[in-house]
Design a protein that fits this description.
heterodimer, A: alpha+beta, 7 helices, globular, B: disordered C terminus
């Protein structure tokens, strides 16, 4: 209530989606000798609990990140995540992208080349945001900014439900 | 002497101290001095022109009053003190605080006989309460409360004047802690005395506070205080029937507000007003239509769950209140119910508006209020809903309607009425439900239909809602149609239905028809994968407590056990039937039933088991799981036997186990032709050469001799001596490991039941020291096992320290023995964990409360000492044994007990983290996890900062290098807990290193480790940021 009534929200009444249940443990995962490969679900699990900067909801609940939009190739060391801002003119799109990037930076082994992109056609300034997010220098510079880092850290703080 | 004493008193003026007050009070209590004498000494000070001197003198008097016993002071003394203190109320403001305290103490004196009215007058005329500090205000209210409690008769004369004076005093109070007493006293005054013309004024004063709103309240204490004040205010608002006139409009007004808290509180107040038992019904009737409109609104479109719950509750209370009074009650309820029915019917009829559920809730709430209302709603709604269900074919609509039915049926069960429908109508509802079953096997409709039938079955008054024949038919339908489906909600519901049948139908039907039918069903599928739910169902039916039971069906089960043994043997099927018998046997009711079960179950199966043990053919009865199932049955039968039967049974066992005579002469009075002749070999379970099939039968012996009836004593005679000796020999020397454990358990169970310490000592001497068992004792590992079980038997009954200390010492010494070390370390687990086979309360074992804690407190220092003594670094296995023992000790005892020892234990636990034993590592990591979580719960961390660096180092090492996945997961998780629970400054130096190591762990081959690492690393990343310590 209080968040929605605050001024300047881009999307004051977003659709809330159900979150997926915990990944089921397979027999192979219990076996110490089998190597578990990275897959889309694993990467999705890393980012689904990131908090939205505006709403007290997670990116999963807002359908910003989806399990089918996480592409992982363990052998070629590639991870590509597409995310969908709730509305096409969302001003938080870059911030959300940055949060996903930072989370993956902290959660994936160094060998992976990670790309975070806006899902095609879901945002007006798609190209600009994608360019910003894929520019390593700019990402690093953004993280030097204490205020920005703080906001991102807040997004990444896990709230136990 | 006297002057010296006066000097002491005078020092109290300049230098007041609680000790002095106390000593003076004691002297007065013991009549060595009088209060008058003391006051004489400093009398002039009380009227001194200097304020500070007066203040000191007054402080001394109040100090003495505070400490003096309540019956010491005499009436004249109290009288003059009261006058004096009242006069002080006019004195300087700075004296006010002391004066009020003094008056409070004085009023509590037993011989206080002053006129309370005068004190109240003095107080209210001379004191401006609102301008006083908080504590002084509190004293004023407390004074009021004390007077109201003590002098109701005297204060009665004041009439409404008292209330007037009180509300003048308290008006404007805002401090929550004071409000607690303010509201309490207000309630007492309004309840005890006439409110008179002041009702409206008084209500207005109190209504200002409604609803209590304290958004800044944080933390438990504040939250509790708020809750307490809210309850206090609610009591005030509903304190007098005269308030009702003003209270209903207030509630209705606040219900219109935006705040959910205000709504909930208004609804709670409405409930309180209706349930207080005051004659407020006319006021309710006057406001009824507005109340109904408001409640309906809150239920149809509830702003939150709490509002909805409160509104439903309020609706019930309103109905309860309306139904009070015989004739007129019926009328007002009737008209109310008519209105509710008229309005809800439209929602039921129009599925498109989707308001069936809230409509159902309203109906349920009203129906729950009175039998009359419930009857009318049932009469009107059940047939209507059935009709609608027939019309609607969309499953969503049907489910919604069935939900409404469920709610109404629940209400009917609660107020126990079946409505006024005649039998045909009731049956037609049941038949309709029955027809829904099986239409679509997996669907929700099916589940809800069965659920509805179960609810109908629960309605037994004034007559059963469903007739017995119908119940039988439904059971048959369910058994034929539904139980075949595995793993579906329908089966759950059906199982639940059968459970209700088990509760409401009589035993003739249950044992005569239902259970045999069920077993027939089971029998036909016993070779298929066993239908687990059916077994659950059978167990549930057998467990339902009933006055009379019939064990006829057991013969069939034993028949099936034999059949499965001969045809297979099919051990799982045998075990299943035996477990069903065991469930039935759990409910043995007295020696009579035990005796008949002895004949019916114990004797025949025991015979089969012994026969099988001596036979060379394979038999299901040789299987250990079957023997354990048998033991489970025997334990329950035997522990309920009377002394005589049990004595005979022991004699039989004696002939069988010790003399190898298996002719059962004791049982059947003559030689059995099944006896020795047919036994391929003699039965010698406790003698060489220790045949495994024989020795395993010790499990049966254990279950019988260790479950002796409470009043039966085995003594410690020749017989028991012999049994114990042979058991010990068998335990140490037999080939079969499992039999050895059985024997040790048996010894433990027998020792537990010995009557006095002398016997125990004698027995210990025989077993542990005597020469003829020396050979057995050379088997170090097995011997340790015997010691462990003896210790367990004695620890459980909290034997005096010396014996236990001696035995524990023997165990701890054996930790350093290469052969028995591991067994000894595991022994602490055996001692502290509950065993299912021996030393349980069901077996009449002597169990003392908190024995684990006692044992822990005694053993931990011994263990730590032993650990310190062996500093030889080369013998790592000794250390490991100690650490394993320690981990068992810590795991089996609640955390609040272990907490005090943690500073000593943590270094050892750190040591354990260097071990390579996965079990030990996991157990230690769990200990650390608990320790860390606990330290967060109460701010004082039990983990010393000095221990954090080595802990982090070890955890990092384990996370990266351990070969066991579980260990890696636990280590990484614990690392995360370290970051959330330990103070950040101690962690920051390690942040970079931890992040670097965890980066490697992020590429672990196992996903579970990686997931844990992602979480832990996330927390460590946030460590330095201003968002705190990771949420």
């Amino acid at each position: 209530m209080s968040v929605a009534s605050r001024k300047g929200l881009d999307n004051s009444n977003p659709l809330v989606y159900e979150s997926v249940s915990q990944r089921e443990l397979t027999e192979a995962e219990q076996n110490d000798d089998v190597v578990d490969k990275f897959d889309g679900r694993e990467v999705f699990d890393m980012i689904r609990r990131i908090n939205d900067p505006e709403h007290p909801l997670t990116l999963e609940e807002l359908n910003v990140v989806q399990i089918d939009h996480c592409e992982v190739d363990d052998d070629k060391n590639r991870v590509v995540v597409y995310y969908t801002p709730t509305i096409p003119h969302c001003s938080m799109a870059t911030l959300i992208g940055l949060a996903i990037r930072v989370k993956l930076l902290r959660s994936l082994p160094e060998r992976f080349k990670v790309d975070v992109r806006i899902y095609e056609g879901s945002h007006v300034s798609e190209a600009a945001v994608n360019k910003q997010l894929s520019d390593k220098e700019r990402v690093a510079a953004a993280l030097e900014n204490d205020h920005l880092l703080n906001v991102i850290n807040q997004c990444l703080t896990i709230h136990k439900k | 002497m006297a002057t010296e004493w006066s000097q002491t008193v005078l020092t109290g003026l300049t230098n007041p101290s609680p000790e002095l007050f106390r000593s003076l009070a004691t002297e007065i209590d013991e009549k060595r001095k009088t209060l008058l004498r003391i006051i004489e000494i400093f009398g002039p000070n009380l009227t001194n022109a200097e304020l500070s001197i007066r203040q000191n003198a007054l402080g001394l008097i109040v100090g003495i009053l505070e400490n003096v016993k309540r019956d010491t002071l005499t009436e004249p003394e109290i009288s003059s003190l009261a006058d004096f203190l009242c006069s002080r109320l006019l004195d300087h403001k700075q004296l006010m605080s002391q004066t009020l305290r003094g008056l409070n103490f004085l009023v509590k004196m037993e011989k206080f006989r002053e006129d309370p009215q005068q004190i109240i007058d003095n107080l209210t005329e001379n004191v401006h309460v609102l301008s006083l500090p908080r504590l002084d205000r509190l004293n004023v209210y407390a004074l009021f409360e004390a007077l109201v409690d003590r002098f109701p008769a005297e204060l009665e004369k004041m009439g409404s004047n008292l209330l007037m004076r009180y509300i003048t005093c308290m008006d404007g109070e805002h401090e929550p802690r004071n409000l607690l007493i303010v509201f309490r006293t207000f309630f007492k005054i309004v309840r005890k005395f006439d409110v008179g013309p002041l009702a409206e004024t008084a209500f207005d004063v109190i209504a200002c506070y409604f609803p209590i709103d304290n958004p800044t309240a944080q933390g438990d204490v504040q939250e509790n205080l708020r809750e307490a004040v809210t309850v206090g205010l609610r009591r005030c608002l509903t304190a007098s029937p005269k308030f009702a006139k003003y209270c209903f409009p207030l509630i209705l007004e606040k219900l219109l507000s935006d705040s959910n808290d205000a709504k909930v509180e208004s609804l709670n107040t409405l409930v309180a007003l209706c349930e207080e038992g005051l004659p407020v019904k006319p006021d309710l009737v006057e406001h009824l239509s507005s109340v109904w409109i408001q409640l309906r609104r809150e239920i149809l479109a509830p702003p939150s769950d709490s509002v909805e719950d409160a509104a439903v509750k309020a609706l019930t209370s309103v109905t309860v209140l309306l139904s009070r009074g015989s004739q007129e009650g019926e009328e007002s309820v009737n008209s109310f119910v008519t209105k509710v029915l008229a309005e809800t019917e439209q929602f039921l009829r129009k599925p498109e508006v989707q308001l069936q559920q809230p409509a159902g809730k309203m109906l349920q709430a009203v129906a729950g209020g009175s039998v009359e209302a419930c009857g009318r709603i049932a009469d009107a709604t059940l047939p209507l809903t059935v009709r609608l269900l027939m019309e609607h074919q969309r499953s969503d609509d049907r489910i919604a309607l069935l939900n409404v039915m469920v709610l109404i049926l629940k209400a009917m069960g609660q107020v126990s009425t079946g409505g006024h429908m005649d039998e045909d109508e009731r049956t037609s509802v049941a038949v309709f439900y029955q027809s829904l079953i099986g239409q679509s096997p997996q669907s929700m409709v099916n589940c809800m239909a069965i659920n509805g039938l179960a609810l109908m079955l629960k309605i037994r008054a004034p007559q059963p809602f469903i007739q017995h024949d119908r119940v039988e038919q439904i059971c048959e339908t369910l058994l034929n149609g539904v139980m075949g489906y595995e793993n579906s909600g329908v089966v759950d519901e059906a199982t639940n239905f059968f459970k209700v049948v088990g509760e409401v139908e009589d035993e003739a039907y249950i044992f005569g028809k239902l259970i045999p039918r069920l077993f027939e069903y089971i029998k036909n599928r016993e070779v298929l994968p066993l239908p687990v739910r059916l077994l659950d169902l059978a167990t549930a039916l057998l467990r339902t407590p009933r006055p009379k039971r019939s064990s006829d069906f057991i013969d069939t089960l034993i028949e099936r056990v034999r059949f499965n043994d001969e045809r297979g043997p099919y051990v799982p099927s045998m075990k299943m039937y035996l477990d069903i018998i065991a469930t039935y046997v759990e409910g043995v009711n007295g020696p009579g039933e035990a005796l008949s079960l002895h004949q019916q179950v114990l004797f025949p199966t025991l015979r089969s088991a012994i026969h099988a043990a001596t036979s060379e053919d394979t038999s299901g009865f040789q299987d250990i799981s079957i023997l354990l199932s048998l033991s489970r049955i025997y334990r329950n039968i035997v522990s309920h036997m009377d002394k005589e039967t049990y004595g005979n049974l022991i004699k039989t066992l004696d002939t069988m186990y010790l003399r190898g005579d298996t002719s059962y002469r004791h049982e059947i009075g003559r030689g059995d032709n099944l006896g020795d002749k047919l036994l391929p070999s003699a039965f010698r379970p406790l003698e060489k050469p220790y045949v495994t099939t024989h020795t395993r039968c010790i499990s049966i012996l254990t279950s019988i001799v260790c479950s002796a009836p409470r009043d039966f004593s085995l003594g410690y005679g020749q017989w028991l001596k012999r049994v114990l000796r042979q058991l010990m020999e068998t335990c140490c020397l037999c080939a079969d490991e499992q039999s050895s454990v059985f024997a040790a358990q048996c010894i433990g169970g027998l020792v537990n039941r010995m009557e006095d310490e002398k016997m125990v000592k004698e027995c210990l001497g025989d077993l542990l020291d005597s020469a003829d068992l020396a050979k057995a004792r050379t088997q170090e590992r097995r011997y340790t096992r015997v010691i462990i079980w003896i210790t367990k038997g004695l620890v459980v009954r909290s034997q005096p320290d010396t014996i236990i200390r001696q035995l524990t010492d023997m165990i701890i010494v054996r930790l350093k023995n290469q052969k028995s070390g591991a067994e000894a370390a595991d022994g602490l687990r055996v001692i502290l964990e509950d065993s299912a086979f021996v030393l349980t309360p069901q077996m009449n074992a002597v169990i003392s409360p908190l024995y684990r804690q006692k044992f822990f407190l005694q053993t931990l220092p011994m263990l730590l000492q032993s650990f310190d003594q062996n500093s030889e670094a080369d013998k790592t296995w000794i250390q490991r044994n100690h650490l394993v023992a320690l981990s068992h000790l810590l795991r089996c005892v609640p955390q609040f007990v272990t907490k005090a020892f943690m500073p000593k234990v943590v270094p050892l636990l750190l040591h354990s983290l260097s071990s390579d034993n996965a079990d030990l590592l996991l157990s230690t990591l769990t200990s650390f996890e608990e320790l860390l979580l606990e330290s967060a719960a109460d701010a004082s961390t039990t983990l010393d900062t000095a221990n954090i660096p080595p802990l982090i180092e070890r955890l990092l090492d384990l996370s990266a290098t351990s070969t066991n996945m579980e260990v890696r997961v636990a280590a990484v998780r614990t690392l995360g807990f370290v970051a959330t629970q330990c103070p950040a400054p101690a962690l920051l130096p390690y942040r970079v290193k931890v992040l670097k190591t965890l980066l490697k762990v992020l590429d672990d081959k196992k996903r579970r480790v990686r997931e844990a690492a992602v979480e832990a690393r996330g927390i460590w990343c946030l460590l330095s940021s201003s968002t705190g310590k990771g949420g």
